[in-house]
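Hi everyone, sorry if this is the wrong subforum. Our group has a chain we'd like a structural model of before ordering constructs, and none of us has done structure prediction before. Sequence below.
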Amino acid sequence: MTGMSGVIIEPVTGRYMHLEIHGQPHRLYWEEAGPTDGSGIPLVCLHTAGSDGRQFRALLNDGDITAKYRVIVFDMPWHGKSSPPAGWQDEEYKLTTEKYVELVCTVVKALKLDRPVAMGCSIGGRVVLELARAHADLFRAVIGLQSSAFVQHYFDITWLHRPNIHGGEMSAAYCYGLVGPEAPLEHRWETLWHYMQGGPGVFKGDLHFYSVDGDVSGTLPEIDTSACPVYLLTGEYDYSCTPEASQLTGLPDVSSG
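Answer:
Right subforum, don't worry. Here is the predicted structure as tokens:
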């Protein structure tokens, strides 16, 4: 960070790219930090359901990480600073495995990244398993944070998009219980604020992938960890994905804490 007269400027740049995703033109926002001359390993970070890339703000500012990695964080369409495509008002947002995988691969190819590491949390942690299975040639490794092959249906997602309920506050209420009790209040409430700002029906649409469409348990045996290593890091306070759920994937390099 650079200081000028008490002002701190973070070493993070934010830009927009115009590209076609799912056959539609999009304006996608992304941020990055670290070497851009090819000397750093690209690290593509995937945010959670209903939030955006601000979740990786600390990683983007971690000098030990950015000394070795080119950290890239993008807001999925409909999230953060990435608007929905034209005509969004006539469709229901619903994330699927096919669409999610296509999105990540499209961004990687658009930025011409050389075999990046993909790291995702929650829904991002789920999709990296499919990336390792179907696109081992494109990624040198994947890291799943709160990652498992499927999730138990422990709540009714229809409550996340109703005219008589504030969807953002409901999303934050769901996520409040997933935060560890020792998390600093400042960081807890900043994270919850990001969920509160989600667009109508977006969190619900993401959870369609997470709890309905995105069960990859049947294809896990197809993952070749010698071609694309898989690392799972799971904390104990997030009951949506317990350490035991990650261990049930049967993949190596699982740790909890």
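For your construct planning: Helices lie at 57-60, 63-66, 97-110, 123-134, 167-176, 185-196, 202-213, 243-247. The longest strand covers residues 24-33.
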